[in-house]
Write a structure and sequence with these properties.
By secondary structure, the chain is an alpha/beta fold. It contains eleven helices and twelve strands. Helix content is 42%, strand content 15%. The radius of gyration is 19 Å and the shape is globular.
Length: 330
């Protein structure tokens, strides 16, 4: 069986490609010609150069595939032009799903994010069914992913065999960019994190997330979405685990919210004046950090058999990989 993976050069996508190859699939990867392909360079995958915004290249990539795993997305909390979020994340998803329908693909797994989900107002855990709307989305990234998920659900309602997965905060191997959470780990390892914000996140092993994609294709209900997550940790708890794993001291000072938000606006203003400057933090990420992104992944566990590697082990993998690949100073 042949499967197309968009975003195969990325953090989650590379692990999905590996899971599929291990399961005996032929894997085709749609990637931009200028993509950093270190994550897949040694893999036996068929590469098709192209962009999800180019319908002709998308059709060529989908042709002959029985399954499609659509992970390609613009994931950033600071990007210009802002229109790219919607062209890539929304219209790119529409292109992939339209081409998959035309080609008669048997199953499509669309990779969304917990960023599109609602949070419980009473302090409980967010689920796939927690009420949420576009108005609750606080950044172009979140709005575009919310809209893209609506596109996927619309295609499913019209008969396309689409299953949606919502990864939480993956950590682990091959985080080459790295992700925002990966940057936290790297900053900790390089002793550049003297303080922390009072926030929380749901931590999951990236290799479990990849396995969850294959399980969603095999067992997921069409039109349904599944949270691919595991342990809910405060940032302080995560840093304490990193301290235990490495012997480095965990930061003890908690930063106040509003002064940090003011600094984020200052960084944003500098970046507006100097487009090549990427802000260390943005107003969107600080506002996001004010809420604890805690979720319940029991639907994926019960319906898909989604694995649950302990967060401590996933963080250990991340630490080892960053240390072995030049992200940590001596």
């Amino acid at each position: 069986m042949k499967a197309l993976v968009t975003g195969a050069t990325g953090f989650i996508g590379a692990s999905v490609a590996r899971v599929l190859l291990k399961a005996g699939y032929e894997v085709r990867a749609l990637a931009r010609p200028d993509s950093d392909d270190r994550n897949v360079a040694e893999l036996e995958v068929e590469r098709v150069n192209g962009d999800v915004r180019d319908m002709d290249r998308v059709r060529a990539a989908v042709r002959g595939c029985q399954q499609v795993y659509h992970l390609a997305a613009l994931y950033s909390y600071w990007w210009r032009p802002r229109r790219d979020f919607y062209d890539i994340n929304v219209e790119g998803t529409r292109n992939i799903l339209r081409a998959a329908g035309e080609a008669g693909v048997e199953r499509i797994v669309y990779t969304s994010s917990v960023a599109t989900l609602g949070l419980s107002k009473d302090g409980g855990l967010g689920t796939e069914d927690t009420a949420v709307s576009l108005a609750d989305m606080t950044s172009d990234y979140k709005r575009s992913k919310f809209m893209a998920e609506e596109v996927a659900r619309d295609f499913a309602e019209r008969g396309l065999p689409v299953v949606i997965v919502n990864p939480s905060t993956p950590v682990g191997v091959r985080d080459i960019k790295p992700t925002p959470t990966g940057r936290i780990i790297i900053n900790f390892l390089n002793r550049r994190m003297p303080a922390y914000l009072d926030t929380g996140l749901n931590v999951v092993d990236v290799e479990d997330v990849a396995q969850g994609h294959l399980l969603a294709a095999e067992k997921g209900r069409v039109g349904e979405r599944y949270i691919l997550g595991h342990e809910n940790l405060t940032l302080k708890e995560m840093l304490d685990i990193l301290a235990e794993l490495t012997g480095l001291p965990a930061p003890k000072m908690r930063l106040p919210y509003y002064p940090v938000l003011a600094i984020a606006y200052l960084y944003a203003a500098i970046s507006w004046l100097s487009p090549r400057h990427y802000p260390h933090m943005t107003p969107a990420t600080v506002r996001l950090a004010r809420k604890r992104m805690f979720f319940d992944s029991s639907r994926a566990v019960s319906e898909l058999g989604f694995p649950q590697t302990p967060a401590r082990e996933a963080l250990r993998k991340a630490v080892t990989w960053f240390q072995e690949n030049g992200y940590v100073k001596s």
